[in-house]
Predict the 3D structure of the following.
Amino acid sequence: MITENNLTSSEQLSYHQDGYVVRENIFSKTEVIEINVALERAVSKALLLSKIGDVYHLDGKRFVDLDYLTVQFEFKESTETIKVIEPANQLNRILDDLVRDIRIVNPIKKIIGSESVALWTNKLNLKSSKDGSGFGWHQDSPYWIHDCSHVDLLPNVYLALDDANRQNGCFRLINQSHLKGCLPGIDNATQLGGFYTNPDFFDLSDEVLMEVPAGSLVFFNPHIVHGSEPNKSDKPRRAFIMTYQPANNPMLKSGLIDNIEV
């Protein structure tokens, strides 16, 4: 039986053995609509803030930093379509409440093995219709390992905010790839290549598509190889991804401590 206060023993086993566990339809349709309204307000605010931030490019991709907010734009030249906002909870109260929701936090406590947890980071992935680009195969741990001494204890929660399927570029992962720890990146002389996982070190036949309805949660290990294809549909495929850590540790970008009290 699934409860909002615990993971079942089979779910805990799946997380540790496979690197992920899925809970479908945890948030209602009404809640998802409310979250998506908050998301759009956060996007509008981020777009305005990006006008006064520090602009830089990595492998031709445009990023804007303002304090500890990072906005990444889609790859097309001169586009104002946002691809990623990190961290996003600071932009809207509903999003900030969401990172503290017991349906998310209590299973995370079981995964980490602690009654007290803190926020590490969170981001909005805004895969727009038709031109929403994919994410290459990667692990999160290589991004974080130089900023964190407990990278094994940074579980992620993916909240689907639209029905996700193959056509709209759903989240994908490589089953059990987390068991290999941090894997080598791609050595192709690009700025970001080293953060994409070398395909020689995982098997694409182990790919699992997260084709889940809006309001579903996917808990996944920071070492698991994951990514997505472009959105080929006429509707967006949005998601909010939250990452946690043991309590009393600072967040990724700000260095502040945000212990989650529920």
Remarks:
- The chain has a mean pLDDT of 95.
- The two ends are 22 Å apart (CA to CA).
